[in-house]
Amino acid sequence: MKKETNKLEKLMNALPQLQCKKCTYDDCESYAQAILYSNESINKCEPGANQTKNVLKKLIDGDTNFGELSIENYQIAHINYDDCIGCTICIKACPVDAIIGARKKQHYIINDRCNGCELCIEQCPVDCMEMVYNDAQLSWIWPSAKSDDSKVRYYRKLTRIEQDKNTKTALNQEEKIKEYLKLAVEREGERRKFLDRQ
Question: Domain limits at 47?
Answer without folding.
Answer: 2-67
